[in-house]
Amino acid sequence: MYYQIWNFFLKEDKYIYWKEKIKVNKNFDKVTWQKIIDFLFLVEQTFQLKSQLAETDSLEPFLKLATENGYNLTAEELAWFLITRRQIWDLFDFAQKTPSLKEELLIAKDPQQFVNIAAENGYYFSVEELAWLLIEIKSSPELVSINNSVGEILTVSSYGRIEIGYWIWLAEDWGIVPPFCHREKPDNLLSGDTNNPFLLDRCFLPKSYFNQRILVSSNS
């Protein structure tokens, strides 16, 4: 299934095509973003669906299978989701290898300046898209902490290990990522605006994140 996603959207020629297309036409929102996350989660939980998607040889039957399983997705929506995420990860990867860019991003005074610096280097995404991905990363159980002097948090991606704690903490300071989260999901979720990530029931972190954050705070 992941080969199909790469072949339809992320292979070099497809990536260039879709990157230019979504840069001009980006009319999607958090609802669409979450819908695609939910679909991919369903795929991971459903072996038969994953196998069926892996057998598709073009985008049309891939999308048809998604629709048949309750997710009416368009090619443009999937492209926007996948290309945007890749651009953010590519920026993090490039910044990790380029100290001058990393420093410039870390001293950005607000998220819009951060996004502008990214665009100047060929990576295009909005403040909202950056926040959605960082919140998702922050709440992922796959975050792995390392014990060092700067309290870095690493997450595994297709690039290997990429430093991510810097960007999460920067976004927290800007107020686009919620600063406080539960270590464990509470039994009773709060009702109300379920799209508000700043509610205390909307974001969950492994214990290691708090240990690292406390370590950094005590050493600063």
From TrEMBL:
What are the Nif11 domain coordinates in residue numbering?
36-78, 91-130
InterPro entries noted in UniProt: Nif11 (IPR012903)
Q: What is this protein called?
A: Nif11 family protein
Q: State the organism of origin.
A: Nostoc edaphicum CCNP1411
